[in-house]
């Protein structure tokens, strides 16, 4: 890594704080990195409230502000401000970048994601050198995860189910859910579906993202006609997959229980998979690095 990039990574690392075991960044720091006003970030969140549940972004309490100050007295928090800062977790930052949709936001968000990954790698690397310290950190993260789960359980169960399950006949909900997932990406969406068809292409033609479709049943006539008019899809032939998957920016992976041509015809579910190693193997298998 060159000296300039190393300095950029260090600067971002110094902007990551911890509140009750959760690593977060301030809206003011993100505004500085994205080269926008802080109010624009908060306006974007306000206009898209449903995409920013409190577990990924929230306005800090006075006690949490004190915690931030205790970690670093130079934290970008003005004592003259009438409101406490909003903070974003790693997932919140990722979602924010999809809303702002600027080249700077995209580039900086990818760099932030890399910094979070580097910090996790640092903890794992030092596991044997500092076992007690790492263990304490893991216990704090586990404790916080339990608190989030307890809070999540208090929400309306029907609302939770609707985010992951679509029932028979809910064609619009299925379409809307698929678009919401696509829009979480910054640049690229990989779709693995052995029955990719016209129904899927009808959706993709209006989405401003780069798509890669991996399928064993690609209609060459349909493919040729699509490529003559639209230029956002790359087709890869592969017959080694049984299930359907969606991969965002080669970083986040979803498992889909229904072929995309049949969305809404029967009850199906979509869930996010946390297996980063498996994701890497899948990308290598289809020739994507």
Report on the architecture of this protein.
This protein is an alpha+beta fold and 289 residues long. The protein has 12 helices and 11 strands.
Which key phrases capture this entry?
single chain; 289 residues; alpha+beta; Endonuclease, Chain A; four-stranded antiparallel sheet; disordered N terminus
Strand percentage: 15-25%
Instruction: Tell me the number of helical segments per DSSP (H or I, 4 or more residues long).
Output: 12
Instruction: Tell me the helix content.
Output: 40-55%
Order of helices and strands: HEEHHEHEHHHHEHEHEHEEEEH
Strand order of the largest sheet: 5-11-10-9-6-7-8
Low-confidence stretches: 1-10, 121-135, 144-162
> Largest sheet at a glance?
7 strands, mixed
**Structure classification:** alpha+beta
**Would you report the number of β strands?**
11
Rg over C-alpha atoms, rounded to the nearest angstrom: 21 Å
Distance separating the two termini = 19 Å
Average pLDDT level: 77
Question: What assembly state would you assign to the polypeptide chains in this entry?
Answer: single chain
Shape call: elongated
The overall number of domains is 2
Question: What's the quick description here?
Answer:
This protein is α+β, with helices and mostly antiparallel strands. The protein has helices at 3-13, 27-34, 38-47, 62-71, 90-100, 103-125, 131-153, 157-164, 171-183, 198-204, 220-229, 276-285; strands at 16-19, 22-26, 57-59, 86-88, 165-166, 188-192, 210-215, 233-237, 244-248, 252-256, 268-273.
Summarize the helices and strands and which ones pair or pack.
Layout: H1 3-13, E1 16-19, E2 22-26, H2 27-34, H3 38-47, E3 57-59, H4 62-71, E4 86-88, H5 90-100, H6 103-125, H7 131-153, H8 157-164, E5 165-166, H9 171-183, E6 188-192, H10 198-204, E7 210-215, H11 220-229, E8 233-237, E9 244-248, E10 252-256, E11 268-273, H12 276-285
Parallel strand pairs: 6-7, 7-8
Antiparallel strand pairs: 1-2, 2-4, 3-4, 5-11, 6-9, 9-10, 10-11
Helix pairs in contact: 1-6, 2-3, 5-6
